[in-house]
Amino acid sequence: MIGCWAAVAVALLMIVFILIRLGGESQPHLKANSDQPTSGSNGTVLSQPVSSFASVTKLRVQERLKDPDSATFRNVHAYRSPKTDGGYIFCGEVNAKNSFGAFSGFERFVGSPIAAALESMDPYEFQKGWDQFCVPERHVEAVTAF
């Protein structure tokens, strides 16, 4: 049992590392919906619209769920990546069906087009990632169509 938890902790740490290391790198394979750059809430001009990153990030979150098609999202917000090259990190809540076919209740997630982490994976490590990425000074906008 301890080995299983150790593997989960290592996997979560790897996801957090990937989010830190790669989360903000430009994603040339993502096609922007507009030629107009997005302006963050603090006036910073970002190179690509949030929507070009949101759809891929949604897929990364769904990959972590037992029943991805049942997923519903709420309170999703975009944040500037720690790297300042125009990437985004998304923080929000997701609810989906579990192995028994019942909805498990909303839980927080942190994601990027490269990786995603759910709070249920390891609450302590998740909280460290949430506190690093989902902070007011990095907030860009609320995402209504996620």
List keywords for this structure.
alpha+beta, 146 residues, five-stranded antiparallel beta sheet
Fold and architecture overview:
- The protein has 146 residues and is of the alpha+beta class.
- It has one domain (2-142).
- It has helices at 2-22, 50-62, 123-133, and strands at residues 38-39, 45-46, 72-80, 88-95, 107-111, 116-118, 139-142.
- The strands form 2 sheets. The protein has a 5-stranded antiparallel β-sheet, with helices on both faces.
- Strand 5 (107-111) and strand 6 form a beta hairpin.
- It starts with a helix and ends with a strand.
- Residues 22-46 have low confidence and may be disordered.
- Which strands sit side by side, in order, in the main sheet? 6-5-4-3-7
Shape call = globular
Helix and strand string, N-terminal first? HEEHEEEEHE
| Content-based structural category | alpha+beta
* Helical residue percent band: 25-40%
Estimate what percentage of residues fall within beta strands: 15-25%
pLDDT averaged over residues: 79
Give a quick account of the main beta sheet: strands, pairing sense, barrel closure. 5 strands, antiparallel
Write down the Rg: 15 Å
Residue windows where pLDDT falls under 50 for at least 5 positions: 22-46
How many angstroms separate the termini? Answer: 36 Å
- From the structure provided, what is the oligomeric state, counting identical versus distinct chains? single chain
Number of DSSP strand runs: 7
The helix tally amounts to 3
Counted up, domains total 1
